[in-house]
TrEMBL record:
Keyword Transferase: no
Native organism taxonomy: Eukaryota, Viridiplantae, Streptophyta, Embryophyta, Tracheophyta
Gene3D superfamilies: Putative cyclase
GO process terms (BP): L-tryptophan catabolic process to kynurenine
Main location: secreted
Keywords for this protein: Extracellular matrix, Secreted, Signal
One of the record's GO molecular function terms: arylformamidase activity
InterPro entries assigned: KFase/CYL (IPR007325), KFase_sf (IPR037175)
Protein name, entry field: Cyclase-like protein 2
Residues in the signal sequence: 1-24
Record's subcellular location: Secreted, Extracellular space, Extracellular matrix
Protein family according to the UniProt entry: Belongs to the Cyclase 1 superfamily.
Keyword Zinc-finger in record: no
């Protein structure tokens, strides 16, 4: 340090701090494995020789949170070790092969990633009657929502639901659980030990609250070993909408405006969905 003139030392220090904060922002980035996925500010990336698309989790200085997961090969898929894989999206024609434009196609299970369940998912009669995702109520999917933290040592039982003391009148709740802490949606291998609603928890919610939108942070609202009874309890009335696989990391607990928009897939009991929270 003695040999370094002061201005040079300060410059080195400034650089070190810059790199440190860059590194810090990179580690808090949701998808460190995607090249260019770090939240890049255009003004920093800049320049024609350095074309890097911005990828953000938060917009407008913390006002808008994207709570949707990206569709990419390592996204976990129900009961699979392999994740989504790289073949769900492909170029059907491309500029490099002489076409005037690039055109991709995709093939995707409708329960992949952040998605919504319609009543037809667990009720055959509702499926046949046409209660598909196109019939879901956009009013339920859009409006004030509470993001709450659930005790981390239990699945969501009636007792847990009771302890959360969610006031009557609250119609949309996003439940953040141990799944978020364990970053399960960022792990390619499906993990059946995720936290979800036990049957008595689902029934308690149906009978004792006004909640019509239930949001959860892994691929199913129901705990793995209660998959059928919990879904049946939620979907029976055809009034409750389940939004699953939400990305609730780094969003403060509290009240938000929620916007969730499914695709109008006629005849489908689920759809990928884009959801965001607005302060
Ligand atoms: C167009 O397709 C080429 C492959 O032929 C690919 O390298 C390029 O990234 C594509 N461009 C866009 C905008 O997707
Ligand atoms: C371009 O065409 C070749 C030959 O038909 C094919 O093997 C390749 O996959 C195509 N690539 C793209 C990006 O479309
Ligand atoms: C939640 O239930 C699953 C079974 O569905 C179990 O594997 C897991 O350990 C439970 N989690 C907690 C925190 O009790």
């Amino acid at each position: 340090m003695d040999s370094l003139p002061l201005p040079a030392f300060l410059y080195a220090l400034a650089l070190a701090i810059t790199f440190q904060s860059l590194a810090a922002s990179a580690t808090t980035t949701a998808y460190p494995s995607i090249p260019g996925a770090a939240s890049v500010d255009c003004s920093v990336a800049g320049g024609d020789s350095n074309l890097i698309p911005p990828r953000r989790e938060v917009y407008d200085n913390g006002r808008i949170f994207d709570i949707t997961h990206r569709y990419f090969p390592d996204l976990p898929v129900w009961d699979s070790k392999d994740g989504l894989g790289r073949h769900f999206l492909w170029l059907e024609y491309s500029i490099k092969n002489g076409s005037s434009a690039n055109g991709s196609a995709m093939m995707l299970g409708v329960h992949t990633g952040t998605h919504v369940d319609a009543p037809g998912h667990f009720y055959d009669s509702y499926f046949d009657a046409g209660f598909d995702v196109d019939s879901l109520d956009l009013e339920v999917l859009n409006g004030y929502a509470l993001l709450v933290d659930v005790p981390r040592d239990k699945n969501i039982t009636a007792e847990v639901m009771k302890s959360l003391e969610i006031p009557r009148g609250v119609r949309r709740v996003l439940f953040r659980t141990l799944n978020t802490d364990r970053r399960l949606m960022f792990k390619k291998e499906f993990d059946s030990s995720f936290v979800g609603f036990k049957e008595d928890g689902a029934k308690w919610l149906v009978e004792n609250t006004d909640i019509k939108l239930v949001g959860v942070d892994y691929l199913s609202a129901a705990a793995y070993d209660h998959s059928v009874p919990s879904h049946l309890a939620f979907l029976e009335s055809r009034e409750i909408i389940l939004v699953e696989g939400l990305k609730l990391d780094n969003v403060p607990e509290g009240l938000y405006m929620l916007n969730c928009l499914p695709l109008r897939l006629v005849g489908s009991e689920a759809s990928p969905i884009r959801c965001m929270l607005i302060r």
